[in-house]
Structures are given as structure tokens and as C-alpha cells.
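Re: weekly structure request thread

Next one in the queue (308 aa):
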Amino acid sequence: MTDAAQKTLSPRAWIELGLLALIWGGVFLANRLALNEIGVLTLVAHRTIWAALALWAVAMVLRQSVPRSLQIWGAFLVMGLLNNVIPFSLLNWAQLYIETGLTSIFNATTAIFGVLVAGLLFADERLTWRKSLGVAIGFLGVVTAIGFNNLLNLDPRNLAQLAALGATLSYALAGAWARRALKGLPPVTAAAGMLTASSLITVPAAWLIEGPMSFSLTTSTWGAILFAALVATAGAYLLYYRLLATAGSGNLMLVTLLIPPVAILLGTAFLGESLTPQALSGFLLLALGLVVIDGRALPQRFRRANRI
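Done, posted below.
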């Protein structure tokens, strides 16, 4: 565990951490409301293009220049695919068939996949026995949430659950790609460039598959779109990078545990959803896996062990 991961959270950091969890937990409800009127790819296109414009405005205020290197824009394109286009599309599609709360539970496996991918690709992130145990417990939670009897049943609901897992794997690969290809770029510029590259993919894709983007939408749909784009994407990126600098990456893992309860409560309150006991049991196992990976809640002798 790095020093940055062990920073003590200040009261302000706790507030910002809770705010980030509320924002990212709320985006599942916003997405589901928007999907009542627009298509999966159209929603992704709206989310990426408005968020990109907002972040470029912030970059201008901060006097950050637009990168001109084709190599950097190629890296933005890959990052946009892995961190926006693929996961946003898969999660949106999944929400057509499964509850928002359940989607958020599967989304929490991003941290599990992140540890696994980093352990396989980076020498300084090797999989210790503790991390391996946490990953195993996390995947047991995923299997529990899906249901042991449903693993080979490829109906739309189970395919949606697998799609949500595919989204989290894509997020994990994006984290590894960012570490290799975007190191040294200002966070706002990197996020704005990534979302711009994403928009160059999603806007024509949505147009070809779902038809021209309509701007004659209901107030509730526009509210959901603007929340997803300006608050849960552009604003959340700014808050995330601030917390990364002030609270450390280890403390940011707490957001992963806080998002599903927010999404579950919102889905229950506004959509009348309810989750099965197996889904909630799966989340508890997933949470336990994340606690084991983090290590700080474990006895000291387990935290210090570094053998694979």
C-alpha cells in the first residue's frame, strides 16, 4: 500500500467522498429515466459530447492547451473506447433488463478487475496472497449475485448482467491504458480529450444505428441527460481527481462501496425496484473482497504479508 493510499481523510474529504458516491450512484437512475425516451447509443453520445464541451471550458479557464500530437489523440481514442464508449453502452443496455441497483453492484467489480489487470500488467502492482484472496471473494460475490444456476442460462436478464461485468472489465483496462499512455497529461485535458474522442465515435454510431439525435425531448429526459453529462461525468471527473490528490487512491476505493447503496435506494424510491436476497448477498461478498484487497481493516500481520 502506497503512502497516498493511506492518507487520513479530513472532514472535507469525507464530504467530497460522499458527494461523489451520491453523484455516481445517482447516474444509474438518471440513465434509466433517459432510456425511456432515447436509445442506448444516443444517451452515450449526449453524455460524452456535453461533458467534453464542459471540460474544455474548464481547461480554457485553467489555460490548458489542446494537445496537437497525433500520438496523444490516438491514446485518447483508445481511452475513450475503453473508459466511455464500451462501458457506458454496455451499462445502458444492461439497465434495460436489470435493476439500477443490481447494475451498480456489478459496476463495483471495477475495483476487483482493476486489481487483477494491474497485477498482470505492472510489476509494482503484483498480486499478493491478500489481493488474490480479495479478488476470489469478489468474484464469488459476482457469481452469487448472478446465481449459480443462471451462469449457463443466456436469457436477456443474464446477458445484461454479463454485459455489466464486461463494462467493468473495460474500465479496468482503461485504468491500465491511462497509466501507460496518458502519464504526465493534466487530468482536465486528459478527460476532455478522452471524451472528445469518445464523441467522435458515439455521435456517428448513434446516428447510423438509432437515427439522428433528437433535441425535442421531455424536461425529465433533458434533466437526466444533463445530470449524467455535466454532473456525473464532467463534474465527477473534476471531483475524482481532486480526491485522488487529497485523499489518495486507497481511500477512493471507499466510493466503490458507497455507490451501490445509493443506487439501490434511489431505484427503490423512484422506480419501485427491489433486489433479491442473492443480489444483496453478492454485494456483501463483493464488499468483503474489497475490504480484503484494501487491507486496512485486517489485523496487522495480514496487512504486512506480501507473498503471492
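The chain is about 75% helix and 0% strand. Residues 4-303 form one domain.
Next request, please.
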